[in-house]
Amino acid sequence: MIARVVRRAAGIVLAGVALLCLGALSRVTYDSGDSGSATLRLSWRVRGHHVDKCHRLTAAELERLPAHMRRAEVCEGYMAPYILSVRVDGVLLDSAVAAPAGARRDRPVYVFRELRLTPGTHDIKIGFVSTATEVEAHAPGSDPVTDIDAPAHLQFTSSMKLGVNDVVLVTYDPESGGLVARRKAPAGD
Amino acid sequence: MTRTLQGMGSRALGRVDAVINRLYGSRYNPLYQSGTIVVALFLVLLVTGLYLVIFYRIGAPWASVLGITEQVWFGRWIRGLHRFASDGVILAALVHAVRMFVQGRSWGARAPAWISGVVLLGVLMVCGWTGYVMVWDVQAQVLAQEGARFLDVVPLFSEPISRAFVGERPLPSAFFFLNLFAHIALPIGVGMLIWLHINRVARAALLPPRGLLWGTVGGLIALAVIWPVPMGAEANLFRLPAHVSLDVIYSGWLPLTRRMTPAMVWLAGLLLVAGAVLVPVWTRPRESVRPPKSFVNERVCTGCEQCMLDCPYGAITMISRSDGRDGFVAHVDPDLCVSCGICAGSCAPMGVGPAGRTGRDQLDAVRSFLSERKPGARDVVVIGCKWSAAGSGGAGALQFPVACVGNLHTSVVELLVRSGAGGVLIASCPARDCRGREGAVWLEQRLHHGREAELQERVDRRRVRTVEASSAEGALLTAALRGFRSEITALADAALVDDDIDVMALCKQSQETAAAGVGT
User: Fold this and answer.
1) Contacts of B36 (CB under 8 A, 6+ apart)
2) Between residues 148 and 167 of chain A, which touch chain B (CB distance below 8 Å)?
3) Considering CB atoms only, which of A22, A34, A37 is closest to B241?
4) Are residues B240 and A32, on separate chains, in Cβ contact within 8 Å?
5) Strand B464-468 to B423-428 pairing
6) What tens digit of pLDDT does each residue of B376-413 get?
7) Which ipTM value was assigned to this complex?
8) B9-30 pLDDT, tens per residue?
9) Strand A82-88 and strand A91-98: pairing?
10) Closest by Cβ to A110, choosing from B24, B91, B160
11) pTM for the predicted model, two decimal places
């Protein structure tokens, strides 16, 4: 009888401990390691310059094509990549070629980068320059830049104060046509 | 390597089972019921989820969950129960998977159940992640950002998904709608997967015994009331999530993956999934040691259907006879047969079973056993399944091993008793832990409830006993043997006293008395 009571009690205690473990497992505090730093987040999307490289077919080339495919001029287009550079307090922190998306590189250019910084005031300079140069755009056989909305050169220069765990977003503002910094989300939809 | 792992796991599990059996009894051992607990908790999730979804708003996810949490009478504990049940369902599924793995119940005809179980576990995890994202607290933010980081390396999306969680644009309600849709739609898939998982087993138990069911649900409710689930801070894409309250069961991988590149995470994940899905391949024994499938001796089969009724895997059907006689004959589908041998014990004329384990093979084995060791009137023969305590040796009795007590043909018991054995003690695994699923249950019915092939009436039931004792419960078997031995000794002593009585003289005296009565 006593043994049975002891077993029952032990069973209840074990069930209680198991439940407490379950409860504890569902709320473990995790230190992400980000504590004490700040983040400069770059995120934007632009349609780059569309560059067409065209050339006129010679009579011999036209002859080789079926009649219904004969066009005097053949163009191959691509979106020009951009070169991104980020300088913080005069130090080049990041530099990369931002290529257009898509298998044929004909989609917009997306930028998404997060740079950890120490909290405090920093001089930030961001450059985003299209590789579709004037030379290329006006090269013989090339169409000039076709996308008039595409920015050729974006620049962001600012001295900003970043608090502990702050995230500052630098993004492209189509209205102003330049890069802007944001410290909070825009109003919801 | 696999066998070593399985052996070590099986021994460890056996010890844990023994402790829990002692505390709750084998019927209420939650480790034996892990599969049914998954279903029970899934139902709890559906019921509590229905309540929560009434109050959830995709336009204000965090605020609506906060509103639910602030409902002191219902919302708070229902949300807690939903959370704890979702944790419990994963834990129970993992216990179930580990159990099947270490017991070698993951290959051959059981492979579809294993694979559907792995998929089920994956879907449950995804379902849980969508649930955590619904709350849109800091944990949700980290989960969403990490998930997006992994998805961005998959060349499927025209725009990086991560950009949705940078604060550049407001997070659209459509995101939360899709998330909610997935969270509600996936359980439908879970229901179908559960059906797939169990459709190859006959008489699948879906829910645990009532006591365990209400004990589990009651315990989780108590936990939700006493230790409510906290409400994390609202996700803020412009603050680094420095300290995050994580649910280890769903988000325990975050600290690890945040240090890895997405490609490494994909590689590790794919290896893990491939390893799990391929368990049926790498746990399958070599062909030379693989147990043979059951076969039917058509000449002997009477078409009684008992083997079909008893087969725990639905592997036996009745087909028309091909030997010119009328009626049906049993047919074993080798793709479904797991070689449990239950059919061998169900066939009175001994016409079905795996090669070497049919009733006839068992009778041959017991005759050979009796020719070597002649048990006396005070001896107890222990018939033990190899996974039971008898299989781990000892107990100091004559032992006649069988693969599973569900294989045991009752004629073996009868032959042992008729050959002079004082008693037969049959040691089985606990019924819920039977490798053949229903061995112990059918044995009990064959011995005491007239189920075919039943132990004949002429066998003295006082000389037959069963005991459930898992491999780590040797003490249970020893105690049962000691008690049974003393009863058998008493029976033997009583028989000796009977021997002192001159039966012939008593009969003669009785006849004379009767004759005198007729005369008068």
Assistant:
1) B205, B206, B207, B208
2) 165-167
3) A34
4) yes
5) parallel
6) 999 999 999 888 998 866 557 899 999 999 999 999 99
7) 0.88
8) 999 999 999 999 999 999 999 9
9) antiparallel
10) B160
11) 0.88
